[in-house]
């Protein structure tokens, strides 16, 4: 396929999708006088807005061509001072993260009409023209995860021996802005893996620089209380690792975690979207009947799939809202059908939660999962809305008070409108499937045995 030749653009600009796939773009205009047209300006602006993109623009005449355009002032953060700086060399700035290494070194470039510029907004000048002291470029943060370097001269051609190192310094400055964007691809939820069989773990990771040993891979067999076991460390970012799951694991609550470090030490990570299975676990089923209206509920199992719609799938679509209290943040977290979540996206065995059941009939909530051996529930001073992850039927309110220091335990009462709660007597027992408010004067941990 024929390529571009000189100023003749045979292939045309890349597509937006192609550009967005790259964490860094170099846009070089050389000595052209018609530098970056309107369509290309839009392409580059959208690339930066897409997230985690970095742009190096270099070439003379860009300021003379684009000065006062939104692209020049808002993206390149520059204002043209002189369309011909009359210089053949630039010099760095002491302490500048891009150019500081060349604060006492003249860097030569080719071309005949370099642009002298001033920075706008939060932009900074990384290089000055030798002789005039005018600004030769601008570096700036475009947004929270994208950076731009604009050099108003033709530096990528010529014979300066520092060119590679200068570009490398720009790359490192880009790289330092944000951690890698990581995505686990397989297993990503719902798969079954058997010990003794080799499987291809896959992921994607994008950043300006990811070293050849920048990837660590972990798994956990308990998504509700994860302890991460290392699968491999110091792997290349090739997106593939073959793994034989260890013997002795039978769990439907497994997750994969991939951690990727960039060249500046920033680490990004991703987990499987939902649980997958290793081995042949024994699955337990728990059911509780919910009445029309408000119900204070908990689940005594580690559910297979902790998302709200997964846990409550057997009563769908007969519920309109779910909410729980977060004592650490001192706020209610809610989920309403057809509306964005207000902080509540998943349910677990430690929490008590309210469910508003619609219709005039009772509904049987059935959840499949793994029974825990024991569950530690952290309690903060004040009220805590908790579950009872236990199959025991003889645990009294008095026993829980003695174990936690609680001075009051409040349970559900369908007839106690409008709050639908009541203070429980010490002789009453806690039961699986119900949620409870525990009031403790000081922080404590309640360990519930299944």
Per-chain topology:
Elements: H1 16-20, E1 25-30, H2 38-49, E2 54-59, H3 62-66, H4 70-75, E3 78-82, E4 89-92, E5 106-108, E6 116-119, E7 127-129, E8 137-143, E9 146-151, H5 163-175, E10 181-186, E11 192-193, E12 199-206, E13 215-220, E14 229-235, E15 240-243, E16 251-261, E17 267-271, E18 276-278, E19 284-290, E20 293-297, E21 302-303, H6 308-311, E22 319-326, E23 331-336, E24 353-357, E25 363-370, E26 374-379, E27 382-386, H7 397-404, E28 408-412, E29 421-423, E30 436-440, E31 444-449
Parallel strand pairs: 1-2, 2-9, 11-18
Antiparallel strand pairs: 3-6, 4-5, 4-7, 8-9, 10-12, 12-15, 13-14, 13-16, 16-17, 16-18, 19-25, 20-24, 21-25, 22-23, 22-24, 26-31, 27-30, 28-29, 28-30
Number of structurally distinct domains: 3
The percentage of residues in β strands lies in: 35-45%
- Alpha-beta content class: mainly beta
Provide the low-confidence segments as ranges: none
Mean pLDDT: 94
Helix content: 10-25%
Radius of gyration, CA atoms, in whole angstroms: 30 Å
Overall geometry comes to elongated
Query: First CA to last CA: what distance?
Result: 67 Å
How many β-strand runs? Answer: 31
């Amino acid at each position: 396929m024929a390529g571009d030749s000189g100023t003749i653009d045979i292939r045309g600009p890349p597509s937006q999708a192609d550009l967005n796939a790259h964490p860094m773009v170099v846009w070089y205009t050389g000595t052209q006088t018609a530098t970056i047209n309107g369509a290309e300006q839009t392409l580059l602006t959208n690339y930066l807005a897409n997230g985690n993109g970095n742009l190096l623009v270099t070439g003379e005449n860009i300021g003379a061509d684009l000065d006062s355009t939104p692209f020049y002032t808002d993206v390149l953060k520059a204002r043209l001072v002189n369309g011909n700086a009359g210089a053949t060399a630039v010099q760095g700035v002491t302490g500048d993260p891009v150019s500081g290494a060349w604060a006492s070194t003249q860097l030569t470039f080719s071309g005949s009409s370099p642009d002298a510029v001033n920075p706008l907004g939060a932009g900074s000048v990384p290089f000055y023209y030798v002789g005039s002291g005018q600004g030769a470029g601008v570096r700036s943060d475009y947004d929270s995860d994208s950076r731009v370097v604009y050099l108003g001269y033709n530096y990528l051609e010529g014979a300066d021996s520092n060119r590679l190192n200068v570009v490398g310094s720009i790359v490192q400055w880009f790289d330092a802005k944000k951690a890698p964007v990581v995505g686990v691809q397989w297993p990503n939820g719902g798969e079954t893996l058997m010990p003794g069989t080799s499987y291809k773990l896959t992921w994607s990771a994008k950043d300006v620089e990811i070293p050849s040993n920048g990837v660590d891979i972990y798994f956990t067999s308990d998504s509700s209380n994860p302890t991460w076991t290392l699968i491999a460390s110091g792997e290349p970012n090739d997106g593939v690792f073959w793994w034989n799951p260890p013997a002795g694991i039978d769990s439907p609550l497994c997750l994969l975690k991939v951690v990727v470090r960039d060249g500046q030490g920033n680490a990004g990570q991703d987990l499987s979207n939902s649980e997958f299975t290793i081995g042949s676990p024994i699955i337990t089923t728990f059911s509780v009947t919910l009445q029309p209206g408000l119900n204070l509920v908990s689940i005594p199992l580690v559910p297979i799939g902790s998302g709200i719609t997964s846990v409550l799938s057997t009563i769908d679509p007969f519920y309109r809202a779910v909410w729980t209290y977060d004592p650490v943040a001192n706020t209610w977290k809610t989920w309403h059908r057809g509306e964005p979540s207000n902080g509540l996206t998943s349910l677990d065995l430690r929490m008590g939660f309210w469910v508003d059941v619609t219709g005039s009939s009772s509904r049987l909530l059935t959840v499949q999962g793994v029974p825990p051996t024991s569950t530690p529930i952290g309690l903060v001073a004040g009220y805590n809305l908790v579950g009872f992850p236990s199959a025991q039927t003889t645990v009294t309110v008095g026993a829980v008070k003695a174990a936690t220091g609680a001075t009051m335990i409040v349970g559900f009462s369908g007839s106690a409108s409008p709050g639908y709660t009541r203070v429980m007597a010490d002789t009453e027992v806690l039961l699986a499937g119900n949620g409870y408010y525990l009031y403790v004067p000081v922080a404590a941990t309640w360990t519930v045995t299944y």
